Amino acid sequence: MNIHEYQAREIFRNHGMPVPPGDIARTPEEAERIAQKYGGKVVVKAQVHAGGRGKAGGVKLAKSAAEAGEHASRILGMRIKDLPVEQVLVTPTEDIASEAYVGLVVDRGSKSAVFMVSSEGGVDIEEVAATNPDAIRKLAVDPRYGLLPHQAYTLATALYSDVKQQRAAANIIAQLYDSFIDAGASLAEINPLITTPAGDVKAIDAKMNIDDNELFRKPRIEALRDDSSEEPSEVVAREAGLTFIKLDGDVGCCVNGAGLAMATMDLVKYYGGEPANFLDIGGSSNPEKVVSALKIITSDPSVKVILFNIFGGITRCDDVANGIVTATRQIDIQVPIVIRLTGTNEERAVQILEEAGFNAMTDMDEAVERAVKLAKGEGK
Amino acid sequence: MSIFADQETRLVVQGITGRDGSFHTRQMIEYGTRVVAGVTPGKGGQRFDDSVPVFDTVEQAVMETGANTSVVYVPPAFAADAMFEAADAGIEFIVCITEGVPVLDMTRVRPFVSEKGSRLLGPNCPGLISAGKTKVGIIPGNITDLGPVGLVSRSGTLTYEVVAKLKGAGVGTTTCVGIGGDPINGTSFIDCLAAFQEDPETEAIVMIGEIGGTDEQDAARFVREHVDKPVVGFIAGQTAPPGRRMGHAGAIISGSAGTAEEKIQAFEDNGIGVAKRPIDVVGLVQEALR
Fold it and tell me: How many residue pairs bridge chain A and chain B with CB atoms within 8 Å of each other?
């Protein structure tokens, strides 16, 4: 789950990190009022779950409260990477002497949480990693002992030579680790971590991704979820217990299992079609899930054909068949449905579908080829 | 032969009285797996289906029945402790089926299990099946017969698809292992490749990967250096858009690391035949066995 910058700042601040103040505005008037409070010189930042906000014009400096209001009116209502901006963070401008990067991420390679710090902050850290990997200092944290004080200090020495700044940064690094563990994050970043001309060290940007698997035990973090900043069909799918990702094609896919779902999309492409979505109905075989899945797929107007690909293991084919029959009675489906199912209770499923007037196929390639042809208006 | 589990496997089911645990215990027994014990705290002394003894703790199950392998079906909130408990009780091979285990829990489980000298498979995996001998987990028993192919995969149903296609062509397997798609798990592609290389009855290996991470690339290099048996590969997710999660926590591509193209290239560069479609695995395997 993604959370907004202002929410991540709040978590960091709760762990004692020096994060400058800031407030959220949903209207230009609110933004202007907040800017007034901070003396007029502020940054107006789009709160949206997409990278590259700055490049998209979603981060603007204002010299006065009136200008802050103008920026906010432009940014609010903007779409960044197709996601609507409904809130802006208004925060006082800081004078910047230097910019560093501090990140913490769960790393598949070292099987632990790994710090990455660099004195070259403020830019795309992946670019630094690609062009100048020596500029990034890494440290894997042993989860049994947590981040040890000397480790935090060692990382800080890679950022600053002044001992006061090193100590301040070591504290911030330790606070970032605590925030990360406390929130159940999979990624936490400060970019940039700045020094001011007076020598203070401050975190002026915050990013955090939460491990979805943590949410059951972190109701406080789950409450930070902002449905309005996600693709609406993906929100509906999540609430129905499905994994759904909207794509640009016209072959609607409904598959059990993530690997098979991806392989099905690939096969659609192989036969010359374009998948309209990724949809995994998961391992259970609740007919209700199939109904939800069909509703979500058919709500996309670009879908020209619906392709079911089910390999029954724990998922019982007859349950999926029942779901398809129920769903087609509830919703008026205007596009053809191609059904492939095989495995557990396959014969029963075929019988249910044939009684309801559907054809069921058992071969994956044949089914995908047929769906692609139908999407192109060929075959019948 | 087979890898990791065979007729010597004496299985304890953690969470045997739960919905998934009880269903799959019956399936495993039907297949021929020696299920010697179950564990559900508070239900010690009962018998599952009037036959399998249930214990409160894994330690008791091991002492009373000599269980050497465990399978975990408990909910995500208790899965990490179930794995700790199995390793603490001296279980040699732990298979965790549970989906949704927090990754930070796994950063602690993994070193603990390896220090105890146990092997962990999963979490969030379908388990494994050693054809004609035993199955541990949720892989349907009827999709494969004994044969010369060792198969390792990050996926569940995609594995069934490929294995069933092989069976349709008359090609069976030694062991099929689903390692799971989570970012931090117990057994890797490389662990399975090394075991298949050592297994005298495995003549060819199938490796099914997907987008995200660099495990397939590492495995490809391992094949070149340490595996002299033919290896056939398939990668799912060629049409996945970058930066989006595709269901598996593992299946995420960010930046240039972990795309399907990169993995396919790594396979080809290291002498692994790459199937374009799942069905093409069959032809490549038949060719390799010739």
Answer: 158
